[in-house]
Write a structure and sequence with these properties.
CATH superfamily of the domain at 41-57 and 89-122 and 139-288 in chain A: P-loop containing nucleotide triphosphate hydrolases
Distance between the termini of chain B: 28 Å
Number of domains of chain B: 1
Order of helices and strands of chain A: EEEEHEEHEHHHHEHEHEEH
Structural class of chain A: alpha/beta
CATH class of chain B: Mainly Alpha
Order of helices and strands of chain B: HHHHHHHHHHHHH
Strand content of chain A: 15-25%
CATH topology of chain B: MetI-like fold
Strand content of chain B: under 5%
Number of helices of chain A: 9
Largest interface: A-B, 42 and 34 residues
CATH superfamily of chain B: MetI-like
Number of strands of chain A: 11
Strand order of the largest sheet of chain A: 7-8-9-4-10-11
CATH class of the domain at 41-57 and 89-122 and 139-288 in chain A: Alpha Beta
Distance between the termini of chain A: 26 Å
Number of helices of chain B: 13
Helix content of chain B: over 70%
Radius of gyration of chain B: 24 Å
Oligomer: heterodimer
Chain lengths: 289, 284
Amino acid sequence: MPTVSTTADPVPAIRLVDAVKVYGEGERSLIALDRVSLDIEPGRFVSIIGPSGCGKSTLLRLIAGLEDADDGAVGVFGVTAQDACAAKMVGLVPQQPALLPWLSVERNVGLPLRINRGAARRRAAIAESVLGRRIDPPAPDMGALLEAVGLGDARHKLPPQLSGGMQQRAAIVRAFGLQPDVLLMDEPFSALDEFTRESLQEQLLDLWDEVKTTVVFVTHSVTEAVRLSDTVVVMAPRPGRIVDVIDIDLPRPRSGSQIKTAAFHGYEDLIRDRLQAAWRTPATGEDRA
Amino acid sequence: MTAIRARDAVASTTPQRSSAPSRRRGRLAAAAHPRIWLPFTVLLAVLLVLWERTSVDMPFLLPPLASIGETLANDPMYYVENAWITLQEALLGLLIGVAVALLLAVAISEVRLLRRAIMPVAVVLNVTPLVAIAPALVVAFGFGPEPKLIVTALIVFFPVLINVASGLRSVPAAVLQFYTVIRASRLEMLWHVRVPYALPYLFAGLKIVFPLSIVGAVVAEMSAPGAAEGLGTVISLASSNNRLAVVYASILVLALMGSLLLAVVTGLERRALHWHESAARGNA
């Protein structure tokens, strides 16, 4: 089982054990995930990278409790993904900002706090039974979070009045505001231009530095994966599987200038090699496609 | 980094939304411009001249405009009273039809089983000509207000049901995903997400059915030959007595009522959907 980190922690933030997900039936069935196992330690920033159809989005949907595995288990801090979501331990930043167009930025980031109020009690109970201690995170200061990503002046604006980059910043604040134990990000910057993307990467790292939650970040971009992550999980398609888990041993904070260093390029090349190798040699059942 | 912030700031300040009063003033000022009202005025003048010439040559086809004005001026209360009856029927039928449509729209968008049961019935009801149902309802319920309310409610029911049902399902997948991950309850999802997304669809439906409600009321009145009141009754009595001026005076009043209702619903829409308006401008 690939383990993300060397130190053994009794309760991983995310644990997949032989997770299987198959779409369709019979001849036309597609194995999106083929007995995938993965442990992610609390507080890690983990990117999942791979070509289309490698199952990275399916993996995210399983952790988000949007779908259930056909076989195997998906756990979040020792409970099922479903229970974790019911306790609001999981936050999501989707590919599109997904803000409500009739609510101001401020109300958009505030609404999730008023939804599913029973979650606080469930979350405390899970924390007590799994970690053996109570956690009582103070209510987040949404104003400060908005300020931190440069949306202080835009808090009363409606989402359609903002640029795509600003909308996605609001979506990130909305997710961090939940103070989730696990934050899932599904290619959140893929629709943005390169300059905006780099500035958002920087702000994401700043926020994560303060909140230190476990992040699972799905991306297409090798550079993005290396820049953001403690660990990069490389996946391959047909069937969807993990081919490599690479720890990124670069100092933090990672500024823009670090992208130009040799060490950085080394990691990029390594990941590209692994991606290409996986593409050339499908693991099992070549005729399955 | 700073350059990007600055660029974002420009994007954010450009579509400055003007305040509501100044926007209203802007609309009025625009409407006062000849470019806006002149084409309509010219067309109206042409149509009135054609009408007048036709009425001189063939008085059995169209009454002279002066005679219509005369009958309205001679007994304005007659028209006001009958219009009030018809308007009451229309509005009450509208209320019933829209309320039932809203409840069913929520029901069929939440429960697939209900959707499969209700939709075929609603479609059949929609393609059945209500003019044909109205006499049967008069037989069943008599000359009172009941058949009028039922016909009006039936006529407004379907457009609202279809529009709101598709509106409730128009929520983008990413929005549903976000709120599903934090396990919003069905009620929370409905109230905070689905209903607001359905509002533009609701108003599109209301714009159709507000004027349509008058059609329903008039049809029902005409199908009840013994009925004593309402503009529909006035029209059918006057036409059987060859009093064309009265017929067209009533039609004029009905048309004005329909326009009034449309203006009311458009005003409500502007109030409720200011965000939608700005969203549309943002995408343009």
